[in-house]
Amino acid sequence: MATCILVLVTGSSQVGGVDEAWKINKNAGRLDIFTFPFDVTERMTFLSIVIGGAVNRLPMWAVSQTAVQRFLAAKSLRDAEISVWLNVPMLTLVIGVCCLEGLVMYAFYYGRSCHMSVVADTPHGNILQILIYFVNEQFGHIPGYRGLFLSCLVAASLSTISSGLNAMASVALVDILGTYRAMRDKDYLKSRKNDKRDTTISRGFTILFGAISVGLAFITMKLGTIVSMFNSVFGAAGGPLVATFLLGIFWRRANEP
Description:
The chain is mainly alpha-helical. The chain has 10 helices and no strands. The longest helix has 40 residues.
């Protein structure tokens, strides 16, 4: 967060302040937020972001494997509820800073009579790497800063990746391997489990899913933006997942064996 704020302050100071950056983006039509077109083929509208974004994020923060795993790791239900409520202002702050960075990046390169897509054609990368390009251009003379910035990005991503890998390993161990064991041994669930063996198997699943994730990273480079793919996957899988939980909440018979 500190590095992002530093980038925001540096970029805004060079374009004449946040007010000037806001004015440039407004004149370019990038702040037409409260528009309500009913064209379903248009991806970024007010309704799609507010309604679709809320529905799309609900599975991730409420009923996904990673979310439930974090809730169960809390000491009590009260602690889990507090963690969710604390996440709201913190996440709002992070997203707000990222949005302001995007506005400042556009205003910065707009002031140079250079569209961001032109910068993307440089050897440094594409449009998705515009922030890294800015850091390399503006802070490259500071020893170690570029490495510090990239390490912060990697650390932030690893916190999410680690929880996802652990969640997938838990699902594979309990729901897949555990079901197979129960089919072979009817007394498996009643018998004492070998925690040491299961821990080793879980680590193996984590390594396997990690290797698969690295391989998929090379494939996603050819499929478009990460955000659009993320929304597509969660939009397809998140709806049925939320529906399953809602069924169990509002219909008592669904919880009966």
